[in-house]
Amino acid sequence: MPKSLPRKYKSAVRQQQAEATRRAIAAAARKLIFSEGYDAAKIDAIAREAGVATQTVYAVFGSKQGILAELLDQDSFGPDYQELIRQVNQTNDPEEKLRFPAKIARQIYDSQSSSFDRFRGAGVVAPDLAELEKERECHRYEAQKKIITFVKQAGRLRKSLSESQARDVLWTLTSREVYRMLVRERGWSSQAYENWVGEMLVAALMGV
Question: What is the CATH number of the domain that holds 153?
Fold first, then answer.
């Protein structure tokens, strides 16, 4: 057993080094994108700024779009998001848990709206952002499954809805499109959006 400790230590050190390299590359990319523009922030320039080999950048992120995804995730899923996830995981009240997706959606979309505006201003093209958003939508749909399962197991899911239908309703009401229409187009405050979506989720999905 003691012989495994050095290997575990070395593995932990390598993981820390890998994370430090990842952070350095992302920080270098962010700096170059906002100072030089997206097109000018070539992979080799990012590597020089980060102090790593060009192949290291490709090994860590695969492509410039992979770096862009990392930067958007840093903006969207930071400490405030993590705190909401902690809270929803600790909540055992079905109605309260069902309101959390509205809080989470608000946190993500508020952060992403600011990020998307900055990246567009730096010359990031719409198709790249749209492709990343499409990927995130798939993750969002899968992540919401456990909330519907919890509400159903608690006996509070509306009887007229299947779990699949309930997931579709949850996914639709917390979509970026609803946020865009109400907050960006109609001028609702983020808090008003969160309150309304929370009420709609409870009204649409919970049985008495």
Answer: 1.10.357.10
The answer to whether the beta carbons of residues 80 and 107 sit under 8 Å apart is yes
Both 104 and 159 in a single domain?
yes
Same domain, yes or no: 91 and 156:
yes
13 membership: H or E segment, kind and range: helix 4-36
Question: Is residue 152 assigned to a domain?
Answer: yes
Q: 8-12, 20-24, 178-182: which has the minimum mean pLDDT?
A: 8-12
Q: What does the pLDDT look like over 22-68, one tens digit per residue?
A: 999 999 999 998 888 888 889 999 999 999 999 999 999 998 888 98
Looking at the structure, do residues 185 and 89 belong to the same domain, yes or no? yes
Contacts of residue 208, Cβ cutoff 8 Å, sequence gap at least 6: none
Q: In terms of residue numbers, what domain contains 84? A: 74-205
**Can you tell me which residue has the tokens 């999905």?**
205
Asked if 158 and 201 count as a contact pair (C-beta separation under 8 A), the reply is no
Tens digits of residue pLDDT in 105-132: 999 888 877 777 777 777 776 666 767 7
Q: What is the tally of structural domains in the chain?
A: 2
- Whether the CB-CB separation of 149 and 198 falls below 8 Å is answered with no
Token pair listed for 63: 């492509």
